[in-house]
Write a structure and sequence with these properties.
The chain has 97 residues and is mostly helical. 54% of the residues lie in helices and 0% in strands. It has 6 helices and no strands. α2 packs parallel to α4 and α4 packs parallel to α6. It is globular, with a radius of gyration of 12 Å. It starts with 8 loop residues before the first helix and ends with a helix.
């Protein structure tokens, strides 16, 4: 970590757009492991709540819930995820609250 950030954060954020869901999930996990639990990337992580793959949406919720700060700004979106068609996403949303 350099300067309170993560040296390769830009490359990891770019992986959130990858065509394969396991890569997007890994990127979310990596960002949540940065200083502050990924709060510097909260907006990019919150965008992943709209991903077409349920496991990526669940990973985004887990990443948001692990943030020191930033994640609380997305509480309304997290509440909306309680209505998701996927049980694992609903469970992750409940845990995030």
């Amino acid at each position: 970590m350099e300067g309170g950030g993560f040296a390769h954060a830009a490359q990891i954020v770019a992986m959130l757009e990858h065509g394969h869901s396991p890569v997007r999930k890994a990127a979310l996990k990596a960002l949540s492991g940065t200083e502050g639990g990924g709060s510097a990337y909260a907006a990019q992580i919150a965008e992943m709540l709209q991903d077409s793959q349920y496991d990526v949406r669940a990973a985004a919720l887990k990443a948001l819930s692990g943030m020191e700060n930033g994640g609380s700004a997305y509480a309304a979106q997290i509440v909306e995820m309680l209505q998701d068609s996927s049980r694992s996403v609903r469970e992750a949303a409940l845990q995030a609250l």
